[in-house]
Amino acid sequence: MTCWEHASRSAAVMWSRSAGNSSIAASDERAATALYAEMQRRSLRAYRELLDGDDVDVRVDLMAAQLVGVAFNRYIVRTGPLASMSAEEVTTRLARVLRSIMFE
């Protein structure tokens, strides 16, 4: 969570915020796809070293969906309980979800 707490100026966050403008979003669709593909490639490589099973790709996609959703809600939209809870509480709650995806 610490890196996310300071991510408000990151390229991904700034791109996501600009995506609300439909003309920017349309022109950046390829960039978003490339960004997602690179994040997925790096995640799969790292998690394959830690996880086993035939469904590692599925579990990594589920983890990515959780992380992207939390990041979008907390740092882009900035409303609701996720946006207002402490980083420690988000970490605690999110860790439970991610552990379940990874190991159950």
Automatic annotation (TrEMBL):
Gene3D superfamilies (UniProt xref): Tetracycline Repressor, domain 2
Domain Tetracyclin repressor-like C-terminal: 4-101
One Pfam family per UniProt: TetR_C_16
Organism superkingdom: Bacteria
SUPFAM superfamilies according to UniProt: Tetracyclin repressor-like, C-terminal domain
UniProt xrefs under InterPro entries: Tet_transcr_reg_TetR-rel_C_sf, TetR_C_16
Name listed for the protein in its UniProt record: Tetracyclin repressor-like C-terminal domain-containing protein
